């Protein structure tokens, strides 16, 4: 096989795989801009993944599953936010608690409702519709890479654009960034920083719910701990993307590529499987080191 | 001119310290005037203005504004009434532009939804032009000078249609040029019909810019004057008030061996106009208390840090017993015999969440080890109990120090620092915020150190404290020592006050300033 045949499906796959990183990254960006490192992303993705697929299975509707799954995730993020902001708990501890809660809650409910702590298969769940525009499929390379994904992939791109507009073009975005930059400036003008921090947390609940739904609805199944570190990598994506929505799109693609490569390489190359599976995490470490070096040079 | 604002019977007690910051304060401002609110640090000026701007709430009293009794519970309510405040420390968002900072919270919108940056720039430009400010609305705050940042703060309030502007110590961070420009701006604003309250303790500025003066002292209004009717000396006298000097036995032991000498100690940062410390020289000797005083922001804090070994100097030398100790670490200085009772008791002087006994052995814990590197608890307990009874500390060895009263916390720090042989002791604001009984106890301990032959350096903004304890007084103004005098019965608060406020300066025309306290 020539390299084109290998790389186009690889990249096509990355575009799809990067979506959870992208969505969680955008959500985390909102709290980051409001001055809080949101380590609860991982748990929120898991909540979204679990509830969207079981709601979809029980209602028989992908749309309702998605909607209710996201609402559930927003609810959990509201609890996380309320404890952090109104009861003034340390955001790192509450974030950690949210992650532990997500793991426990999904396991308990899974066992209680389906009698297993293992994989939940939903055979008769409809597949996520994918975008097919026959006229555009003729475009070489680009058409092959960008088309034919499920609609949530495109919804993710839409969210990047919406986030950009929200952050840079609306009064809300200004206040959100003002909160992260100097909350005292907000207070002096009678604005309440806490409101914008809460908004940031709720938005991250929304995008993480969606990120989780992408994982399970695409698969038609729930696998325990299906988020498998994506929420943590999303934090890296935020920094690597320079804390801008389009930067996050780029950074998410790099991690999509890394994961996609590790999936492919298992079948093709004679590299130890452990090393290949560790590849996305190696990329994380390398990316953080590179970022740190660049920042130090900027500071000098 | 008519009365514009009247604050009546304002009382405010801070619950954390129990201090009465405002005690039945009366304050009245007329329309179209520049009114100077003056007083020493802690006189209650800023508290009064925070109450007016809705940041603090008064326990009692009322505010009558424009003929109506008003309740002001938050800054927005103040803004709606036409009252604006420019804080001493700027509240700006560095990565935003001038216009974005100004409109934050009341942003102009496009199609109901979007932030209209063009309109923001345009309307802020109008305010800038009308008031002759010199700042571009589309520049980022991080690109501005300090003077321009202050202009942005004023523009913020004018954009919110403020008619009464409060400026809290507006000149403290400005250069001479910027101060001149600010005063021109203020006079221009008054010409347009605005009213201005300016908080300050700089008397030359009060004379320059204000129409009337209200003087506050210890939470009370003590005088209201037309600026034209008073001279700086009288304002100074009103500000510092009468002396309350304790009478302690200061009989002389006669030993005066130099211990610590500072020679032309200077701290100057690059691109900074004025050094934080400017050629400070003095010698502290055995059996002597060297008192150093000044108004906040004139170098006392920096001097404290330098003597304690917590901040490097950029010029000059420090000698301890003729050994060069310039820029030695705090640890090295302590090993050499430094004891240090810092201004900030809770963060620098103690570790609030740990117990009294742990705080007592913080600097000497190596002496309390058993073999194998674990603490000998019985030894620590015995040692701590001894100090607790010697220093009359109201608390037990295992209490977290943070649960003790301010006076007892300070006694624990004193016990730790003064126990054992010391060469020299640095006290900084040792009785700040403490009750009379604790203060008196601390005074006795300071004098006891002197009798033991220790060299004592006492940094304090409390003139009475200096007059009570010190043998020699140095006054700092703008980072320089402006006078050195022996403390005698003839030396009064008023005289020191004049130096503190920059009215007098013994070394103004001396380029090579090489005085030495011990020679006085």
Q: Could you characterize the architecture of this molecule?
A:
The complex is a heterodimer of chains A (300) and B (520). Chain A has one domain (3-119, 142-299): ABC transporter involved in vitamin B12 uptake, BtuC. Helix content of chain A is 77%, strand content 1%. Chain A contains 15 helices and two strands. The termini of chain A are far apart. Chain B has three domains: 3-240, Rossmann fold, CATH 3.40.50; 245-337 and 422-520, P-loop containing nucleotide triphosphate hydrolases (Rossmann fold); 352-420, no CATH class. Chain B is 31% helix and 24% strand. Chain B has 17 helices and 22 strands. Chain B has helices at 45-52, 75-81, 98-103, 117-130, 146-159, 176-191, 203-209, 232-240, 300-307, 330-335, 345-349, 356-360, 377-390, 406-418, 436-451, 463-469, 493-500; strands at residues 3-13, 20-30, 34-38, 60-65, 68-70, 83-86, 109-110, 114-115, 164-168, 195-200, 212-217, 220-226, 258-267, 277-285, 289-293, 315-320, 323-324, 338-341, 424-428, 455-459, 472-477, 480-486. In chain B, the strands form five sheets. A six-stranded mixed sheet of chain B has the order 6-9-10-3-11-12, sandwiched between helices. Chain B has a six-stranded mixed sheet with strand order 18-19-20-15-21-22, sandwiched between helices. A four-stranded antiparallel sheet of chain B has the order 2-1-4-5, covered by helices on one side. The N and C termini of chain B lie far apart (52 Å). The chains are: A mainly alpha (300), B alpha/beta (520). Chains A and B meet through α9 and α10 of A and α2 and β8 of B.
